[in-house]
Known about the structure:
Blueprint: E1 2-9, E2 13-20, E3 24-28, H1 36-39, E4 40-44, E5 48-56, E6 58-65, E7 70-75, H2 78-89
Antiparallel strand pairs: 1-2, 1-7, 2-3, 3-4, 5-6, 6-7
Amino acid sequence: MKYFVCSLCHNGILGGALYFDSQSLSYKTNKLTVDKKYRNLVMPLQEIKEISWKWMIFPIATVGMKNGELYKFIIFNKPRFEKWFQEYSH
């Protein structure tokens, strides 16, 4: 399992971490004021349609799901993240 320090962009900036395993990309935070869906957000790799990037001071990844949902994350080590995403998603 690999992890990345990140922030979820949802009703503000929520610090946490993204975790890769062979089945999914998951976001986890311990903030109790956050909706349960976002405290442990599991995105199965086979359900991820695409990941696109833009820069707004920091690199922001938008994870587009096949069902149309979008999740935005500030990921501080884009090259490392892209390397591991390629490895785990193929």
